[in-house]
Amino acid sequence: MSVPASASVSGSARPVLIRAAACAALLLGTAVAAPPAASAAPAPVQETVTVDSEGRIADDGTVTLSGTYRCLDASGPVLVGSSVHQGAAHTRYGVGGTLAVCDGETHEWENTGRVPSGALKAGAADVEATLTELRSAGLLLLPVVHAVHQQEVTLVRSRVVRSRVSGAGHPPAVRPARTAPVRPPAPGQSSSAGQASRRAPMTAVWSM
Q1: pLDDT tens sequence across 46-99
Q2: I need a surface site. Which of 75, 122, 180, 193 has the fewest CB within 10 A?
Q3: DSSP states along 112-176
């Protein structure tokens, strides 16, 4: 039985078709290949405020708190505020304030303020720090909070440093120098000379 011509043609064309299909697949794969992944963009800077785990309290009620902060550019001034609360009392006492530098870098802050006598004592306390912008709105300044952090700290007793110089901050005491007493006129001296000596004005000399 003779083989049909069409069958012989198909057999001879098969390798050509296979090679063509392979080339087409290669070209198609090259065309649809995904571009190389771009490098990941840096994470945006987060505005934060932290509180150190230890604060100080002096005998006169002066409290010192500290921590770090980081903020971005703002249209108005930004303040780092802090407050402290202790025990079952519902009163929270504000402790100072620091003008922040908002440049995206991490900076330190330290606030100092005095609370009423006996309001706080050494030991555990709750501190809240806020990063607040005073944004202009017409004639008003509206507070816009950028970051808040609340943390348990330990207040450590510290002493108030006093100057050893007595009366520091005040001018030194002025005391009069000692002067010789006025003697009566000697015998034979005219009374007018004695009266003149008694009428002579006395000049006070002050020593520092």
Answers
A1: 899 999 999 999 999 999 999 999 999 888 999 999 999 998 878 999 999 999
A2: 180
A3: EEE--TTS--SEEEEEEEEEEEEEEETTEEEEEEEEEEEEEEEEEEEPPP--SSTTTTSPPP-EE
Which residues, in sequence order, are CB contacts of 48 under 8 Å at separation 6+?
68, 69, 70, 131, 147, 149
* Separation in Å, CA 203 to CA 86, 177, 179: 63, 11, 10
Q: 92, 100, 155, 172: which is closest to 131 by C-alpha?
A: 100
For residues 144, 149, 155, 159, the Cα torsion angle rounded to the nearest 10 degrees is -40
Q: How many Å from the N-terminal Cα to the C-terminal Cα in the chain?
A: 144
The model's pTM: 0.57
C-alpha 27 chain-centroid distance: 61
Task: Give the C-alpha separation, 100 to 81, whole Å.
Answer: 10
Structure tokens at 15: 């390798």
**Percent of the chain predicted with pLDDT > 70:** 55
Which amino acid, 206? Answer: W
